[in-house]
Structure formats: C-alpha cells, structure tokens
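Review form for a predicted model. The reviewer records the input and the model, then writes brief findings.
Reviewer: anonymous (R2)
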Amino acid sequence: MLNTELIPEVLRDLSVDPSLHPRGQPHLSAASGLVRVKGRLYVVGDDEFHMALVSEDPASTGQPVPLVRLFEGNLPHDKNKRRLAKPDLETLCALPALPGCPHGALLALASGTNMKRETGVLIALDAQGGLTERLAHISLAPLYDPLRKRLDDLNIEGVFLAGGELRLLQRGNRGNAHHPRNACVTYDWSLMAPWLVGQSPKAPPAKSIRPIVLGDIDGVPLNLTDGAALPGGGWAFCAVAENNRRSAAKDGPCAGSAVGVVGPEGKIRQLHWLQGGPKVEGVVTEVAEDNSLVLTLVTDADNPAVASQLLRVQLPYKV
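Model under review:
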C-alpha cells in the first residue's frame, strides 16, 4: 500500500445560472455524487432538489452547468431548516438496462442517516446516455432498515455496480465509539434490479458486509465518501477525515482527504493523501493509455458561499 501525496488539478467550479437556482446561488455548493455516462458527467448534491449535468469539454469551463429537477418544491433558505428538510442524496450510480429502462438508468440514493433520508431516485436514460422524463422515487426503508441492525449510524455515501453485485459504501462516523467503521455492503444485482423497478415486493438481503479500514489523519479517522468499479474486480474510492464527533448527519471540520484502490480480494492496495485536503465526495474512474488511473472528483465545501469543484488526480494502476 502506498502512502504518497497527490496534487489535485482543478478542472472547474460547478457554476450555475443564479436565476435558475432555487436559492439564487451562482454555483452548486454541496456536490456529493458523480457518475460518467457516455461522455456526460452527472452530479447530485446532498443539499439540492436538482441534478447537474457537467461537460468535460475545456471550452465549457466558464459556462454554467444545467440543472434538472428531481423533486417538486423548494428547500428552505435557512441552513438549519434546509438540513432538516433535504433528501440528502449522497451517491449516484449508472445502471444497465432494466425493465422500463431499456437504455439503462441513473440511481441516486439518500444517506439513510435518519428516517427522513430514505428516498432513492431512478431516472431512465436514452440511447445516447441522456436523461429522459421517466423518473421514479423509491422508498429505501426496506433496504436500509435491516442495515441499521448491523451498522450503527447508517450513512450510505457510495454505490456502484461490479461483477454482478450492487455495492453500497457505509461511511464511518468518528462520533460512534462502538463502531466507527467503514464498510462495503454487497447485494446480488439479479435480485436488486427487480426490486428497484417494483417487480419484486421484497428488498433483497445483503450478501455480505465487509469492514474497510483506512487509518487516520492527525487522529481523525478517514471515512469513505464514494467508490467506483475498476477493471479486474477492484474499486477506487475517495475518503475524508471529518471531525464529526456528534453525529453522522452533521458536518465537521475536514482534517484531510485521500483516494485509493481496493483490490478484488477486498484489501487496500493504494492510499494517497490529497494536497490541500479538499472534501471530496464523488469519484469516477478512467484508465489512461499509459495504464495509469485517472480519478475525476467533486467536492463539498460545507459552505453555501463556496462553489463545489471538479478535480482530477492521476495515480499508478495495475489490474
């Protein structure tokens, strides 16, 4: 396992047209999930009722990103009231063809940190990887309730599909002295798919729950914030050391951040600190021509006045 430092490249701020933002912000400030589909980047925020579409074309860097509504209504302007009312969408995943979604779909999941944060959003894609108007809200309570019995302070922050499994990433919480652990929860995709589209009445049980130990930064544990599948059965992740002593549902100072690789056997193979400690909350991967691994990340500064950013880092990789 490597313990080196990487310097993130800032690709762009996630600016928006303030006249189209429900609170008049000129940017997104709480990006939490990221996925790439056929050259398009989709971003969800844990503090928004919208999804953003982000172009990777350098020529579009200064242009505002379009927003797509996922929920009706608007969140309160007051930060504390908004925190209590927000759906807390923390992660985003691209799915293959499903019944009713012949070209695949996007799946956004709420964190489950409390029983008001138990909604998933399923959006059908078209043949070009664009969004359609077919959108469904899914109650995640049947999926999350069994997990709460096995994972204290449930906080789902990552989801990805790999090797016939849907994998959910539990983010640990420093405030939980008994089980401050990260974990990878796996489900059989052949059982999960019919439940997501309403063809199966019962949510599938978890196949396994595997703890993930990442270490700490200055005594603050590193905790998972997202993951993405890699060729060969492994997966990449991003993580932050956030001093949230009180609750997984509340933010705290960020002591640092990291990215890394988990091998097919479930062991940490690489771990790299990020210079400057940006609070990275979403990741997508790409294997470059020189076989290095390129990670594209989104940030959440936990401050409405600060724009989320799109970052990029490159690291060695071997399947």
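Findings: The chain has a mean pLDDT of 92.
Further findings: The two ends are 15 Å apart (CA to CA).
Recommendation: see findings above.
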